[in-house]
């Protein structure tokens, strides 16, 4: 037997020797070449995964998924397999996704692949601050100015703020209420709101 360059590649030289009664002999040989050209068999395909955004690129979940080859398994008739993948990077933002090809390679270089997608999904609303306390004022001119509020988010640094005043009229010109609402929306469209009620009540006599 002569070993080749991998576990499934070698040659066998089979020799027959014929010898007569006087000790004369002759030989015949056969060479059997064994070459592994069969790819590994994927026994379990890699699985897609959706991870809730943690603001850090979901490094632990991604590392675990990659290390486990996306859940893929493979066997080979001649030798163990080694795994590799083509992952490069994934964006740390709303609904980022990357499709990774996991490749099983036997000792003779034959390959089989399985692909799956890792998706970062943000379903959590921004964390809104407390709204200013409700107040009651005597005249419309006493209504406090709108203030700037800022929310935080587990995934997105880009949060838009929209302030809306909704007026509900009372029984006279200087009797009404204003509901001031701040709505915070992250890059994935998740939103949260807080409100302040400003009551205008004219109780001052002429």
UniProtKB/TrEMBL annotation:
Q: Which InterPro entries does its entry note?
A: HYR-4C, Ig-like_fold
Instruction: Name the domain of life this protein comes from.
Output: Bacteria
One Pfam family, short name? HYR_4C
Domain named HYR-like is located at 129-200
Name under which the protein is recorded: HYR-like domain-containing protein
Q: Which organism is it from?
A: Flavobacterium rivulicola
